[in-house]
């Protein structure tokens, strides 16, 4: 494993590897790694000869400074986990390395309507920040294949849009890896480390609610099932930002279902101060 903190250094190293016909797989992360991240590393290992992982807590995707400050940082454990799982290259830059002119003024990306719904509605500017840092990382690493988790379903749509609309990224292959869950079906998340034992016991209700949506959708008005699902979460003390049934491909809300459109269920809810998100494909 080789660790780089400077973009020029990692670019030179990867250029040498590419000259030897290596296929570069890339897993961008914000650290606080868990088995969900490692599933991405393993997926990259299966398809590529060189696996690169970045660890960078990106300030421009946090619209709440307190959330940025509280985001878990566990670099020593992260490095050990990546070494254990045969990651070849780690990129661990400082903020000034990726944002040498500061974070205030950044270019805007044309991400389409998906930028402003669901997470975009409740976290204004979040996806512009995601697109900004991912664009920088893609330009530095120049990967052949990239790997993201389905848990952040809306983010995968944003990255797909970024790849489609950026000529320099047109040859990048996007891979979406299924959500990894605990035994009680809680989606693995770095934010889970902030939950108390009592909250961890309550958190699986999010997946139970998604399953409720999957088992109760029917052609016609979906409002009643959404209302019941919301009540399930609130009965357990969760404060919901949204419980949504959406077109699986566009993530546009579907309130009147034709019985054919492929659907996804998406939830964002607070357990105490911790905001959790999850999703489930509702139709085959």
Descriptive report:
By secondary structure, this protein is an alpha/beta fold. It folds into two domains: 176 residues, Rossmann fold (3-Layer(aba) Sandwich), CATH 3.40.50; 92 residues, 2-Layer Sandwich (Pantoate--beta-alanine Ligase, Chain: A,domain 2), CATH 3.30.1300. Helix content is 39%, strand content 20%. It has eleven helices and eleven strands. Strands 1-4-3-2-5-6 form a six-stranded parallel beta sheet, sandwiched between helices. A three-stranded antiparallel beta sheet has the order 8-10-11, covered by helices on one side. The protein has a two-stranded antiparallel sheet with strand order 7-9. Helix 8 links the parallel strand 5 and strand 6. Helix 7 crosses helix 8 and helix 10 packs antiparallel against helix 11. It is globular.
Q: What would CATH call the architecture of the largest domain?
A: 3-Layer(aba) Sandwich
**Cross-sheet strand order for the largest sheet:** 1-4-3-2-5-6
The CATH class label of the largest domain is Alpha Beta
Query: Could you please say which CATH topology of the largest domain applies here?
Result: Rossmann fold
- What does the average pLDDT come to? 96
Assembly type of the chains comes to single chain
Helix content: 25-40%
How do you describe this structure in short?
The chain is of the alpha/beta class.
Topology:
Elements: E1 2-4, H1 7-19, E2 24-29, H2 35-47, E3 50-55, H3 65-70, H4 75-84, E4 89-91, H5 95-98, H6 119-122, H7 126-141, E5 145-149, H8 153-165, E6 173-177, H9 197-202, H10 205-216, E7 220-221, H11 223-235, E8 239-247, E9 256-257, E10 263-271, E11 274-281
Parallel strand pairs: 1-4, 2-3, 2-5, 3-4, 5-6
Antiparallel strand pairs: 7-9, 8-10, 10-11
